[in-house]
Amino acid sequence: MHEKRTAMANKIAIFCSASDSIASVYEEKARELGAWIGRKNKWLIYGGANLGLMDTVARTAKEYGAKVMGIVPTKLEEHGAVSDFLDVTFRSVNLSDRKDMMEQEADVMVALPGGVGTLDEIFHVVAAATIGYHGKKVILYNIDGFWNGLLSFLNELEAKHFTRRPLAQYLQVANSFDELVLMLE
Fold it and tell me: Are 31 and 56 in contact (CB under 8 A)?
């Protein structure tokens, strides 16, 4: 599951943590990616929260000139956790609706480190691709080897024939910011 280039991505969906209690290296990398998205005049599409890495990447992308689209589930609004950096807001009924809208709007998805919600988003997009709903990819941004355990498990799934096709058709891995940028350009 390594380097294949995607088509030019102008609308980049970001899946990532909403936690404010994680190591600073993840925030630094989220800022770096947000700045790149802004400098390249891309659209950032994300879950619309003002929390954790979600807030970091949106704030930075906006500061550097990106257009920011938030797909905001009703529970986020109820909890007052909606970002102030949104140019476009789509409201979603629930998380399933949110994932569908993000996948429809984006050219490519990038998964920064995250928890169960991020895993859900990754697998939602990959599962839909495996049966032909779309041809979009998810890039796992493997900051400090964050995704290594998951990649090991996915390789085992392939080795034991629990996948019909190589997962590299749907998932890419960027082990550095430079690799990530090459995949997005």
Answer: yes
C-alpha–C-alpha distance, residues 126 and 171, integer Å: 7
Distance of CA 151 to the CA centre of its chain: 16
Written as six digits, the tokens of 115 are 């928890």
DSSP track, 90-116: EEESSHHHHHHHHHHH-SEEEE-S--H
CA distance 25 to 145: 12
Q: Please tell me the pTM assigned to this model.
A: 0.93
Which of 164, 127, 167, 166 is CA-nearest to residue 147?
A: 167
Q: Pick from 110, 67, 108: which is nearest to 89 by CA?
A: 67
- Please give the average per-residue pLDDT across 85-112, as a whole number: 95
β-bridge partners, 71? 90
Instruction: Please tell me the distance from the alpha carbon of residue 25 to that of residue 31, in angstroms, as a whole number.
Output: 10
In three-state secondary structure terms, 145 is helix
What DSSP character marks residue 7? S
